[in-house]
Amino acid sequence: MPKIKAEKKSRIHNEIAKQGIQFNKDFGQHILKNPLIITSMLDKAGLRPTDVALEIGPGTGNMTIKLLDRVKKVIACEIDTRLVAELQKRVQGTPYQSKLQIIVGDVLKTELPFFDICVANIPYQISSPLVFKLLLHRPFFRCAILMFQKEFAQRLVAKPGDKLYCRLSINTQLLARVDMLMKVGKNNFRPPPKVESSVVRIEPRNPPPPINFVEWDGLTRIAFVRKNKTLSAAFKHSTTMAALEKNYRVHCSLHNKEIPEEFDIKQKVQEILVSAEADQMRARTMDCDDFMKLLHAFNSEGIHFA
User: Fold this and answer.
1) Would you state the torsion angle of the CA atoms of residues 235, 236, 237, 240, taken in this order, to the nearest 10 degrees?
2) From the CB of residue 70, how many other CB atoms can be counted at a distance below 10 Å?
3) Could you give the 3-state DSSP secondary structure of residue 132?
4) Which of 110, 161, 176, 225 lies deepest, with the highest CB count within 10 Å?
């Protein structure tokens, strides 16, 4: 009996293997095979029968089929045409066929349609760009339940002062509420990845904070290059100063402001940092409010990061 059960669980994988389809690690193809974890992820998504769900990297369709059971429509984005064919074959002639839309291609280069929920086992090498593609997507979606490499997930939820707190942490938390939901061992995948995984819930802030994200990203990029150094030290890099001075001169030109002959960008930046009481602060301990105040202080003096 146990042998029959084991065979049944991996039936889809075995069929694919018979056809000579090997999972492509270049695409980050580690198929989630444990049905209990798939069910748990869907339970935590708060799915509604009227939802349009986006799934990225559906693979052999283990999660797709369960999603189709619970929502109005599933949009599956898959880059591997071999797996697209398998997924189409799996729903062919079933009530699911009309509920499934497959987008073939690289999700990072695809213009995503409207969706309510995103539930996905994310190919790990596209984790960071994909998070920001989703968070900057309009119209807003309700939430995303995403599987990531464990350390990446820990960075997403890290707080000021944590060892893993970084630019990814603060940029994500500016745009969304992020929660760690569960850990997933490597043996729940086929083939098993080299690292452990974690599932994270991401809920976009709606309305979003009243901030130019490109400017914000420019500021945090400078501050987190050396997150343990004071901001006063972080801003002393010559290429940083050159970029800020160029932006300042463009700003003054657009607003018909004269620039004094003795103008010194280093002095200007230092004055702003001191007046904002941020010169001795370090990025690793600063939260979103700290960076918002600092960005406003720079912008109000004509210093821009984009």
Assistant:
1) 50
2) 17
3) helix
4) 176
Q: From CA 64, how far away is CA 258, in angstroms rounded?
A: 60
Q: What are phi and psi of 143, to 5 degrees?
A: -165, 165
* 3-state helix, strand and coil shares in percent for the chain, rounded to the nearest 5: 50, 15, 35
Contacting residues for 183 by C-beta, under 8 A, at least 6 apart: 150, 196, 197, 198, 199
> Tens digits of per-residue pLDDT, 172-209?
999 999 999 999 999 998 889 899 999 999 999 999 99
- Of the CA atoms within 13 Å of residue 143, those in its CB half-sphere come to 18
Binding-site sequence positions for S-adenosyl-L-methionine: 30, 32, 57, 78, 106, 121
| Residues 102, 82 contacting (CB under 8 angstroms) | no
pTM summary value? 0.86
Residue 220: both structure tokens together: 């945090």
What distance in Å separates the CA atoms of residue 261 and residue 232, rounded to the nearest whole number? 24
Q: What's the average model confidence in pLDDT over 212-222?
A: 96
Tokens of 95: 């009530």
> At which residue do the structure tokens 């720079």 appear?
298
Residue pLDDT, tens place only, 244-260: 999 999 999 999 999 98
Binding residues: 30, 32, 57, 78, 106, 121
Please list the alpha-helical segments (H only) found in the chain: 2-9, 11-18, 35-44, 62-70, 81-91, 127-135, 150-157, 167-175, 213-225, 231-234, 238-254, 265-275, 288-300
